[in-house]
Amino acid sequence: MANVLVTGGAGFIGGNFVHYWADKHPDDAIIVLDCLTYAGNRSTIAGVEQAELVVGNILDTDLAEKLLRERDIATIVHFAAESHVDRSISGPDAFIETNILGTNSLLKAARKVWLDVDGGKPHRFHHISTDEVFGTLGPQDPAFSETTPYAPNSPYSASKASSDHLVRAYHHTYGLEVTTTNCSNNYGPYQYPEKLIPLFLLNALSGKPLPIYGDGMNVRDWLHVEDHCRGIEACLSAGKPGETYNIGGGEELQNMAVIDRICAEVDRAFAEIDGLADRYPDAPAAKGRATSELKHFVTDRVGHDRRYAIDERKAKAELGYMPQHDFESGLAGTLRWYLENEAWWSPLLRG
What Enzyme Commission number(s) does the record list for this chain (predicted)? Predict the structure, then answer.
């Protein structure tokens, strides 16, 4: 039995990881440290018996030290972060505080407990980052690899780049055993409805516009959150301390293609599921019309990166990582999850 500290474990990716880890490692105790901002939700992990939620901030170094000591924790999986680019543009301070100072706070706690007090007990600090730290790609540029120079273009990606550098520095300076994964765009259950897929799904159900930035031709690699969790598990098992690994879904798509698939999937759901039109009477599909009529172009985001793409050959070769979800079935499953879990997301829309 092992004790694992998961920061941000009541959020989207962290919450999915808690579910995944509990299923794959049923004898492990999972301590979730989350301050429950707007994107953190108790109900995300409410059904996981071996998960204990500790409400607190990663900026509280004393709390982190206490948890590591008293719960005899030797593994930290660090998800906690502000992650929405639009919010970082309008209010970057929260991103600096959580993503940079918060990560440094955790690293200090880990160094003190694992290295200074316990004299170098076996441990692992795993840091979750993003492909956005690499900047943007042209149409013919090779995909981001682990050696691609950092060139962040938003306050969000700049704060994550800074945290990546801190993690690396704590390994090279102090000997802390760390690994980092840089992931592509995640989607799946429990995602807060400010990100593209859940936002457009729920807008489609209520008949609200589907706001498309610019020309809709920005390109992203789409990664099902369960595959991301699978990649993190592989990194914890086989990753070399001090190394970074890119985790992608192998699904490079233009935003417009994603939006068109969302519209088609919603239309199909209304045609196949009895009673859906009664539950969501404002949806165009409830009236026999196409969801695509809700598409609405808006002014592009400031500094909007044009293309991200992930070269995941290192993770495949060294970790044995292989995504198991294709985008078509993954999106269909995600829509079905939101339709079956209105009790989870409807309070978020009211709040």
Answer: 4.2.1.46
